Amino acid sequence: MTVSTTAQIKQSLVAALRGNTPLKNAVSGFYEGFAAPNKPYPFVVYNMVYAPYDFAWGSVILRTAFDVYVFGENSVDANNVDALILQTLHNADISVSGQSTLICRRVGDLSSQDIDEEGKKVYQIGGTYEIWTDQPDA
């Protein structure tokens, strides 16, 4: 078996988010890196932060971290959507193709405010999630 990249982990993360119906209904979409201009609020953005490979005794542990956050026009909505994200991902047993999931856990909070291209105040609320997987190194 060939060692997998982090693509399957990212795919599983997004599938878990989209699989939560209340979360999916609360946002206009899920985007990697950034959302296109003029997307309606709130929406979710995710970025991979790091992904070292640990090789040991015939296996590979991928220790990935993703920032997952919501952009919203008010802090209450942003915090409510963030709570749905936390409920979905913290200690979740996400299924990663070709890999065994060891942990999926929120390890930090993120919070920021900014002004968007239309001059509106926007809240960015979320967290950093570590996802560790194991796979054979053969």
Q: How many beta-strand elements?
A: 6
**Which structural class do you get from the secondary structure elements?**
alpha+beta
Write the H/E string, N to C: HHEEEEHEE
Output the number of helix runs: 3
CATH architectural group: 2-Layer Sandwich
Number of domains: 1
Name of the CATH class: Alpha Beta
Average residue-wise pLDDT: 93
Kindly report how far apart the N and C termini lie: 5 Å
Radius of gyration: 16 Å
Beta strand %: 35-45%
From the spread of the alpha carbons, the general shape counts as: elongated
> How helical, in percent, are the residues?
10-25%
User: Major sheet: size, sense and barrel closure?
Assistant: 6 strands, mixed
CATH topology: STM4215-like
From the structure provided, what is the oligomeric state, counting identical versus distinct chains?
A: single chain
Low-confidence stretches: none
Spell out the key features of this protein.
138 residues, alpha+beta, 6 strands, STM4215-like, 3 helices, elongated
Please tell me about this protein's structure.
The chain is built from 3 helices and 6 strands. Helix content is 25%, strand content 44%. Strands 1, 2, 3, 4, 5 and 6 form a 6-stranded mixed β-sheet that branches.
Outline the fold blueprint.
Layout: H1 7-19, H2 21-26, E1 30-32, E2 43-50, E3 53-56, E4 59-72, H3 75-89, E5 100-115, E6 121-136
Parallel strand pairs: 1-2
Antiparallel strand pairs: 2-4, 3-4, 4-6, 5-6
TL;DR?
Helix content is about 25%, strand content about 45%. It has one domain: STM4215-like (2-Layer Sandwich), CATH 3.30.2000. The chain has about 140 residues and is of the alpha+beta class.
